Structures are given as C-alpha cells and as structure tokens.
Amino acid sequence: MLELYGATLRSRLLLGTARYSSPAVLKEAVAAARTEVVTVSLRREAGAERAGQGFWSLIRELGVRVLPNTAGCHSVKEAVTTAHMAREVFATPWVKLEVIGEDDTLQPDVFGLAEAARILCGEGFEVFPYTTEDLVVAERLLTAGCRVLMPWGAPIGSGRGLNNLFGLGALRAHFPHVPLIIDAGLGVPSHAAHAMELGFDAVLVNTAVAQAGDPVAMAAAFAQAVEAGYAARAAGPIEPKDFGTPSTPVIGQAFLG
Known about the structure:
Elements: E1 2-4, E2 7-9, E3 13-16, H1 23-33, E4 37-41, H2 42-45, H3 49-62, E5 65-69, H4 76-90, E6 94-97, E7 100-102, E8 107-108, H5 110-122, E9 126-131, H6 135-144, E10 150-151, H7 165-174, E11 181-183, H8 189-197, E12 202-205, H9 207-210, H10 215-235
Parallel strand pairs: 3-4, 3-12, 4-5, 6-9, 9-10, 11-12
Antiparallel strand pairs: 1-2, 7-8
C-alpha cells in the first residue's frame, strides 16, 4: 500500500489526463491502468465552460482521486493563485505544484517552487511538488511542509526515461522515508519498472500513454511494469558486479586432465 498525505492507495501508477484523442479513450486508459489518482490541469478544465463541465463530469464518473496541477505557471503568484482556484473547483487540498523556470526543458524554477510550497503548505494545501533530483531543494521543500516529492526523470514529454541515475539514487538514499514519485520523462514501461527497482514509491505518466499508438494497451503495460518493478525491489535484487560469477558450482565436478 502507498500512503500519500493520509490516503492509502493500492496502485503505484498515477495517470495524467491531457492529450488523449477522446474522452472515451481516456476513460478506457484509466481503467486499464488500474490507477486511483489522475492529474488534471485547471487551465485545460476551464478552457471552455461547457467542455470543462463535461470533462469534470467524466472524471467524477471514473471514481478516482483528482490531483489538480498548476501546469504552465511561471511565477510564484501565478502558481499560488491557480492552486487556490483548483481547490475551489475540485474540492481537494491536494495540488501538484509546478513552477516552470525554463521553457525548452520545462525544468522547474526550484527557487519559486520552494517559495510557493511554503505559502501553500501554510494555507493547508497538501503539496506534491514537481522538482529536480537536487538534494538541497528537496530539503527546502520538506522544510516548507511538503510530505511528498515528485522529482523528474527527464523533461516533460521527452520520453527519455531516467536521465540522472546517480542523482535519483542519491535522492532515494537521503530521504528513505519520504514518498518519492517519478514525474515526467518516462517513455516506455521499462522506464517505470526501472524507477520502481531503484526504490521509488510510484510514477506519474501522461504523454507516453496518451500519445501511444494504442493508449489503452500502453496504460495496461505501464500498470504491469510498475507492479513488476515494485515486486523486484521487494524481492531484493543482486548487486551488479564488474566480473562474471558462475551460476553452477564447480566444486565436485570431474576434472579431465
């Protein structure tokens, strides 16, 4: 079981709701992923009043938790204002906090992120910050009141997987009891399995599923990969070595001269 801000979840796969070809495909993908949490952009939800109402009705029908995000925000003020609107629209204290600092990579502005997190946590929000693998930033976010961290694997939508294995491994080792969710950059199910094998608690996937040739089949594949990776980590993987070790004992074998 995964516990996030007191909520107990069976699934360790979170799913984004953007860029699907139709509401029907989104609905089938959510079911195939067996997810219990979906992220929703307030900007897209409110883009057209009628369309927004229809989308919100669809999300309610899915029976999953909603994690609103502040996607597209580039300043502390913008992110905080969007979070307030999201809490009112979706009736949840949860918010995936994004403060974008660089347009080409969509890298978080970690300074603005820490400040926005401090403000929102002080106002009773339960913040899921989209951050980097930087240890100092992680400590600042936890000090601000965050109880979950969402480090990127790679730039949003890039599909590159886990770019900085050393940094992500160090983050996991430094904060062994903090729920860590890989957010952004995963492209194929093996990336998700790898994240789970490294000891991360969950993954969030959007583009890799929504833009796949068959989003429903890809959602199911990610669900299986997350389960396999988590099970492998729990089973205790062997340590990698720089030399070969025979799997068949040589003691007791006949020696032919």
